[in-house]
From TrEMBL:
Identification of the protein by name: KamA family radical SAM protein
Family stated for the protein in its record: Belongs to the radical SAM superfamily. KamA family.
Species name: Candidatus Thalassospirochaeta sargassi
Alphabetic keyword roster: 4Fe-4S, Iron, Iron-sulfur, Isomerase, Metal-binding, Pyridoxal phosphate, S-adenosyl-L-methionine
Residues that bear N6-(pyridoxal phosphate)lysine: 324
Domain annotation Radical SAM core: ranges: 98-313
Pfam families for the chain: Radical_SAM
Binding site for [4Fe-4S] cluster: 112, 116, 119
GO MF assignments: 4 iron, 4 sulfur cluster binding; isomerase activity; metal ion binding
């Protein structure tokens, strides 16, 4: 897989297609060059960049927005957090999160094939941890053996498919050795950014285990190429159901027609649109976040435009560990100033979420 990891490679490819880098991006690279730390690295695949450059104007903008860094990532809005989902307090040990009673997640690596500029786990992704070791996996297997209330394990990160097939299968085998009945969700953006990674060997290997589900992350219809379709078909042919989680992003998919086209096309590809997430309150992402008020307006209109099968659940992850809450309508209470929605978390506590 060819990776693009610096501004020279990026500008050369963009310039060849008549696209230039704007000042926000130049400033990001300059800031990093001067020695800034604590940022999400830049990396993308040539395939994904070329998908952008071959798309129509709207598709190209939507994909480039997810690829190209911006100096505003160094700004932290008042409501933004390093750990926006409050996962740390639900981690019995590093890289393992048990937030919901019946499921747990394992951060199997911090590597990705590309670093999405909206990533909510940006303080972990692209960091210094690398792939999960056997020594780290052992207590996790023990925990899963003991906690029989856990029914599903999510393998995430980072992108689990940056691991070799051999390593990934070894992790699944270890989990299944203590709890064969556990459902395992493999969460990966590879069908979007490097569909060839979904080889027949990978799909068949995953399909040899019972209860494997694949969850991917398409945000715009222009990402659904013939290569992506072939990748999805390999998974489906191996008996692995494929779900999609999208994030609502400013300038990417924050209009009715983009969302409608995305979800209808996913269905045609055999992928069930599962969730549409409000952008999390992760540091440095406010320039990409759609205000929740507008998100609720959009999603309440969308449900009249597409079938129930095409319509994902719209959900917000409440900051500080309030949990993932599905928002069914526009009628949420706001505070006296109308600036924050008051939303009840899974713990029955009230959480404030910026409306605008
Ligand atoms: S692939 Fe997933 S974990 Fe990696 S940067 Fe994108 S959203 Fe974050």
């Amino acid at each position: 897989m060819a990776g693009i990891e610096n501004i020279t490679q990026l500008s050369n490819l963009l310039n060849a297609s008549g696209v230039s880098i704007d000042k926000h991006t130049n400033e990001w690279f300059m800031r990093v060059k001067k020695g800034s730390t604590d940022y999400l690295p830049f990396l993308t695949t040539e395939y994904y960049l070329q998908t952008a450059l071959q798309a129509d104007d709207a598709g190209c903008r939507a994909i480039l927005k997810q690829i190209i860094p911006d100096i505003r990532e160094f700004d932290t809005a008042e409501c933004e957090l390093k750990d926006p989902l409050g996962e740390e307090k639900f981690s019995p040990f590093p890289r393992f999160v048990h937030r919901y009673e019946d499921r747990a997640l394992i951060l199997v690596t911090d590597r990705c094939a590309m670093y999405c500029r909206h990533c909510f786990r940006r303080s972990f992704s692209g960091g210094i941890n690398g792939p999960l070791s056997d020594a780290e996996l052992t207590p996790m297997a023990g925990y899963l053996a003991e906690h029989r209330e856990i029914n599903e394990v999510l393998l995430t990160g980072g992108d689990p498919l940056t691991l070799s097939n051999e390593r990934l299968f070894k992790i699944i085998a270890r989990i299944k050795s203590v709890r064969p009945e556990l459902v395992v969700r493999v969460c990966s953006r590879m069908p979007v950014v490097n569909p060839d990674r979904i080889s027949r060997a990978l799909a068949d290997g995953l399909g040899s285990y019972e209860g494997i589900w694949f969850v991917t992350h398409f945000n715009h219809a222009a990402e659904l190429t013939e290569y992506s379709r072939a990748a999805v078909r390999r998974l489906l042919a191996a008996g692995i159901p494929v779900l999609n989680q999208s994030v609502l992003l400013k300038g990417v998919n924050d209009d009715l027609s983009s969302l409608k086209e995305l979800f209808q096309k996913l269905l045609r590809f055999g992928v069930k649109p599962y969730y549409l997430f409000q952008g999390d309150l992760a540091r440095g992402t406010s320039h990409l976040r759609v205000p929740l008020r507008r998100a609720l307006e959009l999603t309440s209109k969308l449900k009249y435009e597409i079938s129930g099968m095409a319509m994902p659940r719209f959900a917000v992850d409440l900051p500080g560990g309030g949990g993932k809450i599905t928002l069914p309508s526009q009628s949420h209470p706001v505070d006296d100033e109308g600036e924050f929605y008051i939303i009840k978390g899974l713990d029955n506590e009230e959480y404030r979420y910026p409306a605008n």
